[in-house]
Every structure is written in C-alpha cells, then in structure tokens.
Prior knowledge:
Blueprint: H1 15-41, H2 46-49, H3 52-66, H4 70-78, H5 87-120, H6 122-125, H7 131-149, E1 158-159, E2 162-163, H8 172-207, H9 213-252, H10 259-274, H11 277-280, H12 283-288, H13 292-301, H14 305-308, H15 311-330, H16 332-336
Amino acid sequence: MNQTSCAKFTLPIDYEHRFLPSVYIIVFIIGLVANGWGFKTLPQKWKKLGNISVFVLNLGLANILYLPVLPFLVVYYFKGSKWIFGDTFCKITRFCFNLNLYGSIGFLTCISVYRYLAIVHPMRVMGRITVTHSVAISVMVWFLVGVQSLPDMFFLKTKRQKCYHTTFTAYVEDYLKYSLGWTFTGFCIPFFITLGCYGHVIAVLCRKNTIHKVLKQRSLKFLFILIILFSVCYIPYHVLKNLTLRSRILSKKKICHGWSNGVYIAHQISRGLVCLNSALNPLVYLHVNEEIPAQLIQLLQRPFNHFSLSNSGSVSVAQTAESLTQVNMLHSSSVKLNP
C-alpha cells in the first residue's frame, strides 16, 4: 500500500525502559556466576574433557566479552535511551555484542562437529585430532568473527544521543546488504553444519544398539541445548533483524505495510532474547562436565549438613557424586575423542 507518509514504529509502553534493562541485569548476574563457575571447574577437568575443552574455554571467553558492557546498556535505557558514553564506546559495545553472538555460534558449531566425528567416525579420527588442531581452529573462528564484525564499526551508530543497534535510516540500504551477507556466513552456514551433524548423529544413535546408553543420553541433551539456543536466541533475531531493515527501507520510500510495526516490535523483543545466550551457553559446561550438578548440590547443602542432614543423607549425596563420576568414566574414551 502506497502512502505519502508511513506511521512511525511504536513499541509497547516502557518496553525499552523496563524490559530490556531487566533482561540485561538478569543476564549479567546469571552470566557472571555461571561463566565464573565454568571457568573455575574447567582447569580441573581439562585433560578429561580432551580437545573439546579448548572450544568450551573459548565459548566462555565469548560470553565474558559481552557481560562488562551490559551495565552501560542498562544505564542507557534507564535514562530514556540517551547515550552519554560517546560514539566510540557505542561502537565498542555493539562490537562486543557481535563477538559474543557469532563467537558463540562458531564454537557451538565446532563442538557439534567434534561430537559428530567422535560418534560417527571414531576410528578414522582417533589419534589424528590434537589440542593443536583445536587451538588453530579456535584462532580461525575468532579471526573470521572479527573480520565479519569489523565493517559494522564503520556504520554511524550515534545520533541525537541514540546508540543504534544497526545504523540510522540514511544508510539502511547498505546496512541491509551487509546484514544479509553477514547472516549467511555468520549464522546460516554454521546452523546448517550443526543441523547436518546432529541429524546424522541422531540417525546413527537410533540405528546402532552398540553405542553406550550414556553416550546417547549426552548427545540428546546437547541437541536439546542447541535447540533452545537456536530457537530462542539465534533464529528469531536474525530473521526479524533483516525484516525490520527491509521494512525501514520501504518506509523510507513511502511504501507502507501493515506488518511493518509488528515485525519491528518482534525484533526489539528478539534483541532481548538473543543476549540470553550469555546466560544459556553455560549449560554446555553442565553438559560436558556432569559432575558440576553434584558439586553444586554439595555446595548448597554444606552449610546445612550439621543441622538437617543425617548420616544417610550425607551418604546419599556422596553416592550421587560417585555415580556421576562413574558415568563420566564410562564415557571417558569418547570424551577424549571430543564428543
């Protein structure tokens, strides 16, 4: 529908001033605690986890890069979307977000490929994949993510005390072209690689009865984590971001559609959801090291042991930890091959 002017995009009342800051505060607290715990336990299990520990470490680094800038975004939205920290820091904030997002996707893809090789082609890769390979791949992932994210720094981000997530309207056509290419290389290719790997893994697990039950359970758990991350954080954000850019171009040309406002609102909500990946990624730590839940139980129950735990209760906690340790031992051969 063509009109001389288009209605301005509107958000639900106080969305940016309440919802986004609340999400950022929650992600900052949970992400700091969960990633801190992951870094604390990772050195203890480094050899046991094998080469996959390199990717888990880098996944944690990708999360940590974004967490320090969240307080500044909280201040930004609490002050009525008025950016007071300068243009350079606005770009740094958005750059850290991109490193976190695409670094997380990249390292989750690496973990998926290694798990695929360990389950589907264990004899072919046994002894051929070393820590050096994992480090080299990690460096390559950081390089590719940095190269893809760097052009975003050259788009204007601040105008009238606004720190734009993309850029303002004058350059939106160029930004859409960049965003589509970025989405394809930084999201679509890793997504289809991950999908292909786990599609094959599930087929193998369902077809073969010789694979250990523990290995099947861990593979299905990791698949479930990936489904949550992609369906909640990654897919909605990329789809709605590009649709919003397209609707802004149409609006600039005075071509208006009824769906534009709904897409814009949904995109703003997806921006809050995508940053949850910093709080959800630590689920990978729990998956690759299943002794962590037992350690958490012991830590939480320790202050109350002399008040409420009987001897049998204490034994039960110890047995729980011992059982989880046995599960890890059963799976140690596959873990060393990077499940």
